Amino acid sequence: MGICCFHSCTRSTENSSSVNLGIVKSLGFEQIFKNALTGMPFGGCEGGSDFDPHGRSDAEIMRFCHSFMTELYRHIGQSTDVRAREFGVGGRETGYLFGQYKRITNRYESGVLTGKGISWGGSLVRPKPRATAP
Question: Model-level pTM?
Fold first, then answer.
């Protein structure tokens, strides 16, 4: 099941068997306040799925990421909603998501997803998701 809660935004995508609508709404609401307190010009979107990548094959993970982005791409863009990676979403998954976004839209918008590899327009500053960064 995929879940996304929009508030005109930037926020993370999480894949874990524990993700549910209540968690997604709570994290999105929390992000609104964090952005307001720091002066960031974003809202507080949150999204994710109950797909647990642990124990899955690369092919299963790729198919899931492509399917997830096929439903999500209409709602995101570097000027609309910037997705970041979080729990259960690493560089490989972000690459699959970005590749599918690029394939569907026929646009190379490096700002639509954070956490991509350097070759896809990613940054050296934060190579890991926030939840695992030191």
Answer: 0.64
